[in-house]
Structures are given as structure tokens and as C-alpha cells.
Design goal:
The chain has 185 residues and is mainly α. Helices cover 16% and strands 5% of the residues.
């Protein structure tokens, strides 16, 4: 985990062990989230009625961490820990900045407003683990609370994040951000 190229909260680079886990190969779509809302009467996310963001096969946007946890629970799943997310995003590569390696181009991910909105899930090639859109398109929630010095203190086996905090971890960057936010670390 981590990077020596980035911010202090990404340092130091270190090896972490995580038990086997599953992760969906695509981001949750609006069509999937609609089924959840219909079944549970859960609130509509922000931007639900905005045509730039509400196409059936676009990833759902405007969900809070609590919304994401509720959806995952309804689907019989859970949010990944930050360590699991980073392992999955790396796709089996070590020491690379992005899920496919280095460098980055707009043919590999949706970022820096190049498409002007989130694109349909799976629009770009998968990483080495067969996972799509691990960089760019939309932010992805992790189970952990954020801590600016957590990387330097985390356990080396199945880290679960801080017990309490004021912010939760988001990973992967989004369609409107630059490449710094898309790095796997």
C-alpha cells in the first residue's frame, strides 16, 4: 500500500496482507440502485433527476456513505476496506500509479472533465483482476474512517481503518478531477 510520490498521508509504502474478498467488477449502476430504492423506499440520491447523471447504465452518484452502506447491506455485500480497495485497484501490479500501470491517458479513464460527466460503467478496459473503472469516473466509498496518519500506523494484516472519525475514505477519483486523485495510492 501507499506511495512515496504522493502526499504524507500515503507514506510509507508498505506491504499489507488482506484475506480473500470479492468485489463487484463494475460500479453500482443507476438501474441497480433504482431496484434498491423500490425495494426499501430509500431516499433518492442527489442528482437523481439530472439527465447528465441518471442514465440506467451510468454509475450512481450523489450517494452518501450511509446510502452506500445501506445499498451494500441490501445487496448482501459490504463496502471494501481501504486496504482491500487499494489491492483490488492495483490489479496485481506493484509500484505503479494507476490500475493498468504508468502513465495515464484519456483512453484509459474518465477524468479531467474529458467526457463532461460519468460515462457508462465498463467503458474502459479492466485492470489485471478484471475490475472496471477503478480510476476516474466516480468516487468509490470504502468502509474505513479517514485518518491523515493512518498509513504509518495501520496493522499489517487485514487493516480495518480507524474505529471513529469525522470523514470516511473515498477512493478512485472522478470524472471531473485531475490525475493526482486517480492514483491507486
Amino acid at each position: 500500500m501507499g506511495s512515496n510520490d504522493g502526499e504524507a498521508n500515503e507514506k510509507p509504502v508498505h506491504t499489507v496482507y488482506v484475506d480473500a474478498f470479492y468485489m463487484d467488477k463494475y460500479e453500482v449502476t443507476n438501474a441497480q440502485y433504482r431496484k434498491f430504492m423500490s425495494a426499501t423506499r430509500h431516499r433518492k440520491p442527489d442528482y437523481w433527476d439530472d439527465s447528465r447523471f441518471n442514465q440506467p447504465n451510468q454509475p450512481v452518484v450523489g450517494v452518501s456513505w450511509d446510502d452506500a452502506v445501506a445499498y451494500a447491506s441490501w445487496a448482501g455485500k459490504r463496502l471494501p476496506t481501504e486496504a482491500e480497495w487499494e489491492k483490488a485497484a492495483r490489479g496485481g501490479l506493484s509500484g505503479k500509479r494507476y490500475p493498468w500501470g504508468d502513465p495515464i491517458s484519456i483512453s484509459q479513464a474518465n477524468y479531467s472533465n474529458n467526457a463532461g460527466k460519468p460515462v457508462l460503467v465498463g467503458s474502459y478496459s479492466s485492470n489485471g483482476y478484471g475490475l472496471y473503472d477503478m480510476a476516474g469516473n466516480v468516487w468509490e466509498w470504502c468502509a474505513d474512517w479517514y485518518g491523515s496518519d493512518y498509513y504509518s500506523k495501520l496493522p499489517l494484516c487485514n487493516p480495518q481503518g480507524l474505529i471513529l472519525g469525522s470523514k470516511c475514505v473515498l477512493r478512485g477519483g472522478s470524472w471531473g478531477l485531475n490525475t493526482v486523485f486517480l492514483r491507486v495510492a
